[in-house]
Amino acid sequence: RRVLLLGEGNFSFAASLCDAAGTHVVATCYESEEEASRRGRAADSIRRLRGRGAEVVFSVDCTKMTDYFLPEKREFDRIYFNFPHCGRKSGVVKNRDLLARFFRSSAQMLTEEGEIHVALCNGQGGTPADQPRREWHNSWQIVAVAAGAGFILSNVHPFKAETIQGYKCTGYRSQDKSFCVEGALNHVFTRSMPLLRFEPMICEIELESRKVYFQVPQVLVDKINRGFLELNSRHPVWTVKEKLTVELSKAFPLQNIDYCLPLLHQGHLNGVCHSSIFWIIPSPEKTPRTEAMSNELENAVFFSHVDFCRDTDKNGWVNIQEGCHTSKQYCLRPSLLPYAQAIIHRRAFLPGTLHVLSGPVFRKCLIAPYSMPVFHEMVFVCAVNRGTENSCIQMLVNNIKTSIHSLHKTVSSFKLDINLQEAVSFETTELNDFAAFESQLSEIQYFICMERGISGSCEKGSCVGIIRTAPYELASGELVVVFASLNLDLLAMLICGISDWRMLWTSDARFLRQFPRGELRLFKNFSLYPPSYVHDVSFWVPDGEQFDEIAFHTIARQVSGEMVISIQLIDSFQQPETGRKSLCYRLTFQSCDKALSHQEAAEMQLLFRKEIEQRLYVTLR
């Protein structure tokens, strides 16, 4: 491998690397050879480097590296820059600028899989790894600076000068007063996947025995048809599903039926808020209606221009009715529960057999840590004789617990608590988005809650499943149908220690590399301490209309590519004279897997302002 060292003082660090097998060292410094050679021990180190076949280059400006290396000589596997500094009492702003220009120059010198190592004195970096940690404005903000050149912080560890044979730290431009290396940190940066601007996507499906096309909602373009649950998948969501299926098949006759589930749902889901649905306009042509036209349809639905039939059958099932409106309404399926109910309606079931459905579902939701616009749902349906439903529920939960504990043991030593809790003990505000939405679809008896290292609680975000029962009358007697629904994405996150749901959808290969097929492991984040940027937006709400907060959040997801992690209402004002209402929201932008610069976040904010003005008819302030 080729290693480049920048800003060497006495070349003692470079000399310590030149004996490594399979390593070609190129050592540089800012001064001329004559100036550098006068420094203590520098001449000896230079002779040693040249004697080992290393290259030594002088008068190299780390911000203009392409000026010193021909194109064929620019591919380095690792770049070291130890204790960069502008010199004398230059402030943090000048040193940030030095790092920014260094990273931009390094982007042209590094291999795709290469690393940049930057050693800084304690506190300079501005990350939580610094102890004590400086205030952000008084640090070098190295992670944000590197993001501007497309790099993410993938590792940070102590810079142990005493373990580097022959190394002696010097000061700025090899001055006698050396940098303080006590508590110093080595920051390891790697290339980030680029921020993508997704083009509109057309999806082809079979609908009512004919081929149709529809435009995928922009917020879902990178999430549709990802194939996480396909047979050749190695995604942790697939592994969780397979392990659960194997474990449950030991206790129940089991039948998988997820191969025939349509992506689009026709009609209305009783009790579900219309603004939570991704409405779709199918077309027989490959150039279907645009997303703008889909937005018009949604507006019609939001303001009740489409009338839906609302009926309930004698068994109390959630009704799935086509609208009374003359045109058929379709949406991306928000749940698999209607398909489970359809199995019972068609009597396509065997009493005592556990029918299993799984696949991605799609919901518009507010931006929150456990709110996902798409996730993989696993639904279990079992019809049993009346009076045996409680034992069926207990057996189902026990087997789910057993399989999850078995999976978790291979991953972590943290205690994992799984509880079955009655739904009556919860308010809607205590539920995460998954549980709250399921509560709209049907009356729930139990929540399945899971916590790492916490006993006997069901905190918001920890609900990974729900259980409900419903009666069903047959000529031969009465059955009780047990339904259970699990959020496979939340399960995978809690088992593998994945703190951000967006990481499950990353296109960065470093995620799946951590999960051999059929195995679950504790996830190691490859993007540490990502920078966040805060922007506010205030506007007047249209007179006489209810502000659609879900649409507001969905637009934020779309324009930022899921880079908005928080939206908070920080001020609300009503003008006494006119009654006009003004709202002020604070948006926090942060990526979990990509480099996000201050400029890119600002551009997203400007686009967001434009979109809410056009689509929500607000007046910006």
From TrEMBL:
GO CC annotations on file: mitochondrial matrix
GO biological process: rRNA base methylation; translation
Group of enzyme by EC: ligase
InterPro entries: aa-tRNA-synth_II/BPL/LPL, BMT5-like, Fdx_antiC-bd, Fdx_antiC-bd_sf, SAM-dependent_MTases_sf
Gene Ontology molecular-function annotations: ATP binding; phenylalanine-tRNA ligase activity; rRNA (uridine-N3-)-methyltransferase activity
UniProt catalytic activity: tRNA(Phe) + L-phenylalanine + ATP = L-phenylalanyl-tRNA(Phe) + AMP + diphosphate + H(+)
Start and end residues of each FDX-ACB domain: 528-621
Pfam families hit by this protein: BMT5-like, FDX-ACB
PROSITE patterns named among the record's database cross-references: FDX_ACB (PS51447)
Keywords: Aminoacyl-tRNA synthetase, ATP-binding, Ligase, Mitochondrion, Nucleotide-binding, Protein biosynthesis, Transit peptide
Gene3D superfamilies associated with the record: Bira Bifunctional Protein, Domain 2 (3.30.930.10), Ferrodoxin-fold anticodon-binding domain (3.30.70.380)
SUPFAM superfamilies the record matches: Anticodon-binding domain of PheRS, S-adenosyl-L-methionine-dependent methyltransferases
Domain of life: Eukaryota
Keyword Glycoprotein included in the entry's annotation: no
Location of the protein in the cell: Mitochondrion matrix
EC number(s) recorded for this UniProt protein: 6.1.1.20
Keyword Membrane applies: no
Family: Belongs to the class-II aminoacyl-tRNA synthetase family.
PANTHER family xrefs: FERREDOXIN-FOLD ANTICODON-BINDING DOMAIN-CONTAINING PROTEIN 1, PHENYLALANYL-TRNA SYNTHETASE
Protein's recorded name: phenylalanine--tRNA ligase
Species this protein is from: Caloenas nicobarica
Organism taxonomic ancestry: Eukaryota, Metazoa, Chordata, Craniata, Vertebrata
